[in-house]
């Protein structure tokens, strides 16, 4: 593995580990992030992992681009993927899969002549990787979904996607941490609070985590504090 | 405890936001940076009052804001000329001034530039979230009330302190005042997917005039001009630095600013230098700008020069402002 360094301004390098999405690079990215935090210490301003890259922003008053590059290259030379927890922690997310909170469940089912239950079972059957957080605080981009579950984004985004919605776009899946406009296909809802600025850690998921969705009943969903109001379809 | 005088918002205008140095160490959670769009003018607004470089200033975009002092207040105004006046008397930017109880500070139509920065002693009080009061509406963080919302009619603004030792100069020396009336030449450090752009497009990017689009906000500023063609085989979203220039399939560049999304999947032409970001933040809709290729060394040198001028003036260390 020979990651490539690309300039991203006077105080940042973008480190590219591969050209296309490749689950095999995730342990390397996890290790790189961990080792970078140690190597840069207080000179690190931001570390933003995303799929195949990590953006490393440093304090330009303390380090110039050559100095920062040297630190990054030393980290890359010495890193070992497995010893630094390269596999990521496993997080379980309970989901109530139901057409009332996941209107596209039936759409996906219809494509294959499946029942909504079969779609839910397929979604919950695999373990997913958190590649990046973005879009809104705590929104985790996870993959890869099996090709049968892949769905293009909605032609017209919904104005209001309820908080906790479990969603699919292409071969990725996610959970909406807050109510927001959004164009992903909804298949269910989790009672888990995915982002809370007053909590440590603030996000339930972090880049590098592995995720498994656990199918739960409506009763369990409500007992866990979930809001079972159906998705409101507002005309765009 | 002495009561700190307040500034009452008589009329809020379209967009006035509290901004400090910004939010850091949280980008990997999907949380944006925030902070003043024009760090240069905001830095001077703080320097004139002897504030910390990252103290909270009020970013006034476009104008239309009207404030009334409820007691004597020492303030500073830097950045755009938004036809500011005190009790109807013209107030030029780049200076420190005092309001007496009952004085009315009003902002009108932009004469030059887009964003003015109003400083208060010790910075304006806000409700911090994740270590910053930077006001980001879509995340609901920061601001004077802690809900990420801009100033509203009837709101109150309070400076952190009633008074503090002030620098000897009460205005920014003319040689340090940028002239937003001059055509903007924005420094770009090539990087990202530069090599995948069509040769003719690269030529045009750095030679054609670009027009600032109406689609311009704190997330990003779009430029209109020749269609830039990029032959990248397929991008995967990547972390976005401040000033990153993304080119979506329509070929019209978007310069990503303080409230940008944390990751993005369009090819990048390069990154605006810190000074170019500050300058672009003051460009009005329809204004013509040019992109000029530059290198890291030069951009760094120019940035440090500008920061050191601000820092030496206020007699404080500039390091804390290093996150531009």
Automatic annotation (TrEMBL), chain A:
SUPFAM superfamilies xrefs: Cyclophilin-like, PH0987 N-terminal domain-like
Domain Carboxyltransferase: residue ranges: 3-205
Name assigned to this protein: Allophanate hydrolase
Organism superkingdom: Bacteria
Molecular function GO labels: ATP binding; hydrolase activity
Pfam families: CT_C_D
Organism: Halovibrio salipaludis
UniProt keyword annotations, A-Z: ATP-binding, Hydrolase, Nucleotide-binding
TrEMBL record, chain B:
InterPro entries on file: CT_A_B, Cyclophilin-like_dom_sf, PxpC
Coiled coil stretches, renumbered: none
The entry's keywords: ATP-binding, Hydrolase, Nucleotide-binding
Gene Ontology molecular function terms on file: ATP binding; hydrolase activity
A Pfam family hit: CT_A_B
Carboxyltransferase domain ranges (all copies): 28-310
TM ranges: none
Keyword Hydrolase: yes
Stated name of the protein: Allophanate hydrolase
